[in-house]
Amino acid sequence: MAVAEQPRELASRNWTAALHDWVTTVDHKKIGILYVVMAVIFLVIGGCEALLIRWQLLVPRNDFLGPDVFNQLFTMHGTTMVFFMGMPILIGMGNYVVPLMIGTRDMAFPRLNAMGFWVTLFGGLLVYFSYATGGAPAIGWFAYAPLTERTFSRTAATDLWALGLIVSGIGTTTAAINFIATILGMRAPGMTLRKIPFFTWTMLWTSVQIVIALPPLTAILIMIVFDRNLGAHFFDTQNGGSALLWQHLFWFFGHPEVYILILPVFGMVSEIVPVFSRKVLFGYEFMAAATAAIVFISLGVWAHHMFAVGMSRTEDLFFVVSSLLVSIPTGIKFFNWLATMYGGRISFASPMLFVAGFLSMFLIGGLTGIMLAAAPWDFQLTDSYFVVGHFHFVLIGGTLFGVFAGIHYWFPKVTGRMLSERLARWQFWLLYVGFNLTFVPMHVSGILGMPRRIYTYDADRGWDFWNQLTTVGALVQVPSFVIFVVNVIWSLPRGEPAGDDPWNAWTLEWTTTSPPPSYNFEEIPTVRSRRPLWDLKHPDDPDWNYE
Amino acid sequence: MSGTGLAYPLEGGGAHSHSASPAGLSATEWGMLSFLLSEVAFFSTLIVTYLAYLGKDQSGPTPAVLSLPLVIGTTICLLSSSGTVHLAERALHRGAVGTFVLCWGATILLGAIFILGTGYEWYGLIVDHHLTISTNLFGTTYYTLVGFHAFHVTAGLIVLTIVFILTLRRQVTQHHATAAKLTSWYWHFVDVVWVVVFTVVYLAGR
């Protein structure tokens, strides 16, 4: 008996020890994994909310969900995907990869890093806690005033929503501060700013944008809390509060947020395209300058979300021009990726496959973005399903495809195992087909006049067919996500061993073991070019001769 | 901390100070600067909101009820505390712990006078002028803006006091000059914000 019990006791102690280790960890790699796992869980939750929305819209006059539940679902879907899936997964991947890429042993402030994660997680739980108080907030993710006032939202749900986003916003801001300090102050010797890996460069600028754009959100959320709980009048229109001011301040955060969600992905793509084309990144300096330009220009485009509120002609023109300006640096990036691929020996392993998905889908999202930036076009289609189609092309076609590319690229480094290529291909094609089937028809139903956020519609509007296509597309995407989770769970113990450098890549994270030791590098490497690992592999023809 | 924590010192002279950092700042200094940038963004939002609602009230007290002499007095205290904290920080850098204690203590005193002044001012506004956060838009925006500044001064005072007590217990030496410097950056920032708030609320706004 004693013999039989001992291992069980040991196993349970190991289990609690492992839990204790994960809860108290300040290692940037473990915190990065925690962020990504949290984000994937919220991705599943937000995805289920989307499926419920689509099921309701499958047929006209459907009574599957009531209007109030429907409003709660699109609020929670948007909030979850932006704050608890999109930003955490990018911050998590940055957390894991950036210190390895720049040849250092951890982030600048490891304990602050751990706090940032836990605070983000608890912010998410706080928002979801609203279900326990009788229902989620029903205000939409951009929470237009005066819907958030007590008069219109009487339950505690809106308070919990605002508090949850304040709390997780503090976490996000500390993460950004940590990235800036780490990237500017802790690079390996020799790695000047002109030699940092491109993903690190985009994480730096994303962090700058978070630091500038998120505190205003925190400020206006505090105003909501004051309005609702102290009787303040910030957005109380009956006492002179301005609904328009909320829109200006929210979108001053809200539009840069879109770039916060896409810039790190630009960085991942800029790492993956060269490795899988066997060429250096084309026009590194122009790409770097374009990143900074996007950050600055996108701070001045917010009111293109507000053309329909009736601003002056001058304001309309200003925001049309500034919004169209963003397409120039973005176009530079796009053409430079294509130029990197041009003439290269391209291999379509799973990371590159997802990059190809990203390039084709994000292009469409970008082009519909140019359409919507033109005020006259926007007057016609604002708040229609065309807009919903547009931003899902950017956020799924852009961010999610790019994130999957990054996950397939770095998974071998994180776990020491390769993901199954076969399952990855199934995942990719199901997502690619399902995604297009879901979101292309949205553009059509939008042009046919279907407004976003309606819980049902009449049969004689001609929208049924397009909505049915959309719902079928959503269902096609489901097995894709299941396959991804299965692939991860299966590959963790059984995947092919990866070795240190399975992709024959060039940045510093591939010089250490897979998974890396807690101290990352036994010896801090010295860097002389943008591709230190190339220099190591080709001492006869190092890069620094050409840069 | 188990083996996963910091294995090397972060501040100047550490294993990583050799990285070619632009402007020669250390990681901790970059961290403080980006934190202060986020604070600038936060206060800018409150100030924009204050200005957007200035003079929009139909009823209730207006900024005319604010008393200038009292605030000029507290402003002088807060601005001079920027000078004392600078002297303190330089003194610790040289290793003159005695001067450091003196100037650091003076900073706490001046900051405390400022907070007491704000409290006295608010007492007058609430009791004499019946202005609270729910009275009208002026009350809403005024208490939020000035209140968040006062909150930042209070947070600064708590940090300053902790360092002060540690110094009296002889636990602060020249080695902690960077920490003192970063605290002084925060304090300077709180002062600069007050210059803007003072200009907007008490000079331009009245």
Number of strands of chain A: 0
Order of helices and strands of chain A: HHHHHHHHHHHHHHH
Reading off the top of the CATH hierarchy, the class of chain B is best stated as: Mainly Alpha
Strand content of chain B: under 5%
Q: What structural class is derived from the secondary structure elements of chain B?
A: mainly alpha
Low-confidence stretches of chain A: 1-5
Query: Roughly what is the average pLDDT of chain A, rounded to an integer?
Result: 95
Mean pLDDT figure of chain B? 90
> How many strands, what sense, and barrel or not for the largest sheet of chain B?
none
Q: Structural class, judged by helices and strands of chain A?
A: mainly alpha
* Helicity of chain A, as a percent range: 55-70%
The name CATH uses for the topology of chain B is: Four Helix Bundle (Hemerythrin (Met), subunit A)
- Number of E-type strands of chain B: 0
Oligomer: heterodimer
> How many structural domains can be distinguished in the coordinates of chain A?
1
- Output the number of helix runs of chain B: 5
Shape of chain B: elongated
Q: H/E element string of chain B?
A: HHHHH
Rg over CA atoms of chain A: 24 Å
